[in-house]
User: Which sequence fits this backbone?
């Protein structure tokens, strides 16, 4: 049997370009799918870091603008909306690991500083809609045979950046072009790619799609809603989040659309890339350690205390944060419990970037508690490994959390997660209640109500467990033995691909 061909459309991939967990997923899931026989190719915009890390193969493939001869009139971004000649696709492989990839080049749209979504001054790119419309359009063209030698059976798009490809493909299907099956994955419903309706003609979106039952969202264009309405199947990154986004509290205004599509909405938990996050073989944490040999972890703690300017104190319970510093992550709550944390003999290391108010409040905590609280503002991959390996507890008190990866890394490294019971955090961490300690299922500290009292209570449970060293060790061992593998996520994703491929495509009721 021929292997299933999948075009995997996303905006970032570790280790080349990463702003968050999306990049970890684009690095972890495709090889796990390939290991199960799927022929997966990534499609990303040609951001400079990606161009630098991809070895080109073969000739470039021009990407015609919508309305060109042979293309459905009015579909796709119009000529001249890129700031120069038309875009082109370059096939290649990620030099570090051989992953096949297409990079979409568009002069003026991607080859510039900043990150994929923000300019050098931290503002969203003024032409963000065009950037990702071209990505969607290139995906739709590859999906309908632009590359004569490789035509995907499934187009799998990630987050709003890929959303328009589903709208373009739907229109092509309606016009009689054979289209692939389509799967859309929500990593974070809070970021929706909403743009002024006036952009419609420049993005080549037919008027027929601009309606309540289409990609219109309160009078504007929503790339996220295009993905939700026009894909054959939808996945998101944990079972709990799959349920939560169908409720008004967590649906970000799209819960009604998601309830309509509940029959094809699947929650598939993310995994951990063992080639990157393995305490026994982590080049960034030497010597390594495992559940039966924790000496390396004690050394990592001493090293971290030194690097971060904390008092070298082996028995200080060391809490850490490795995160975007945003309200999503519940980190506005942290400053109000820091005094108690220190007073109980704990220490805190924060590694992150984000919201100026949260940054200032955490820096004030560090000033109040020199030697006990250290804050490093910045994005630092190597330091993130050192922090997670050297700490005792990792804090993820999120307001909402589609999956969350750092709590999984914490489990792996025996750094017990302290989390709020929401989304993927609820699906992956089990509280150290007496009954859970008793039956051996405890793996961390879980609180429910978003607020300082809940967070403070969970902190006190961590200190209480520290006073019971045998129990701490048992929980740590259990946490380190848990496995959240990409192989399982790949099996579930492949099942969704096969289901979507087996039914007549382009049949979503929009
Ligand atoms: P999200 O994608 O919502 O930010 P995740 O937990 O899914 O949250 O993924 C975050 C990823 O980014 C993890 O790999 C984490 O280690 C990494 N990360 C977050 N902040 C930093 C930072 N300041 N420095 C290095 N890595 C970071
Ligand atoms: C998003 C979510 C995070 C998830 C990640 C990868 O960034 O905020 O919870 O782990 O995507 O799916």
Assistant:
């Amino acid at each position: 049997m021929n292997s299933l061909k999948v075009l995997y459309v996303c905006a970032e991939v570790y280790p080349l370009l990463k702003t968050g967990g999306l990049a970890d997923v684009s690095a972890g899931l495709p090889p796990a799918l390939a290991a199960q026989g799927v022929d997966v190719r990534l499609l990303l915009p040609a951001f400079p870091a990606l161009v630098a890390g991809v070895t080109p193969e073969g000739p470039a493939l021009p990407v015609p603008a919508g309305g060109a001869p042979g293309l459905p009139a009015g579909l796709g971004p119009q000529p001249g909306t890129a700031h120069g000649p038309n875009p082109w696709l370059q096939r290649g492989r990620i030099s570090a690991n051989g992953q096949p990839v297409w990079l979409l080049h568009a002069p003026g749209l991607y080859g510039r500083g900043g990150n994929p979504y923000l300019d050098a001054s931290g503002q969203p790119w003024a032409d963000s809609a065009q950037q990702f419309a071209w990505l969607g359009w290139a995906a739709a063209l590859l999906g309908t045979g632009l590359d004569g030698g490789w035509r995907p059976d499934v187009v799998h798009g990630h987050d709003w950046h890929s959303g328009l490809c589903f709208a373009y493909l739907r229109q092509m299907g309606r016009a009689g072009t054979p289209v692939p099956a389509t799967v859309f994955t929500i990593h974070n419903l809070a970021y929706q790619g909403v743009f002024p309706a006036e952009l419609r003609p420049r993005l080549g979106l037919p008027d027929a799609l601009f309606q309540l039952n289409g990609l219109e969202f309160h009078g504007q264009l929503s790339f996220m809603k295009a993905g939700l309405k026009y894909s054959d199947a939808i996945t998101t990154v944990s079972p709990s989040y799959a349920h939560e986004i169908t409720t008004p509290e967590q649906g970000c205004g799209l819960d009604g659309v998601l309830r309509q599509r509940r029959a094809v909405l699947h929650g598939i938990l993310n995994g951990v890339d063992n080639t990157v996050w393995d305490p026994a073989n982590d080049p960034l944490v030497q010597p390594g350690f495992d559940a039966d040999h924790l000496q390396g972890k004690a050394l990592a703690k001493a090293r971290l205390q030194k690097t971060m300017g904390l008092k070298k104190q082996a028995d200080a319970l060391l809490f850490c944060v490795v995160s975007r510093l945003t309200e999503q992550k519940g980190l506005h709550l942290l400053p109000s419990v820091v005094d108690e944390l220190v007073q109980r003999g704990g220490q805190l290391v924060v590694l992150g970037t984000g919201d100026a108010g949260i940054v200032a409040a955490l820096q004030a905590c560090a000033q109040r508690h020199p030697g006990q609280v250290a804050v490093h503002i910045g994005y630092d991959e190597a330091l993130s490994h050192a922090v997670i390996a050297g700490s005792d507890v990792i804090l993820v008190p999120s307001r909402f959390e589609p999956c969350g990866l750092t709590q999984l890394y914490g489990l792996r490294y025996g750094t017990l997660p302290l989390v709020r019971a929401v989304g993927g955090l609820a699906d992956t961490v089990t509280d150290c209640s007496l009954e859970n300690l008793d039956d051996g299922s405890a793996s961390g500290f879980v609180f429910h109500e978003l607020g300082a009292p809940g967070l403070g209570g969970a902190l006190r449970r961590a200190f209480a467990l520290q006073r019971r060293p045998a129990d701490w060790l048992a929980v740590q061992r259990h946490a380190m033995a848990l496995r959240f593998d990409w192989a399982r996520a790949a099996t579930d994703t492949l099942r969704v691909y096969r289901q979507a491929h087996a039914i007549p495509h382009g049949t979503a009721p929009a």
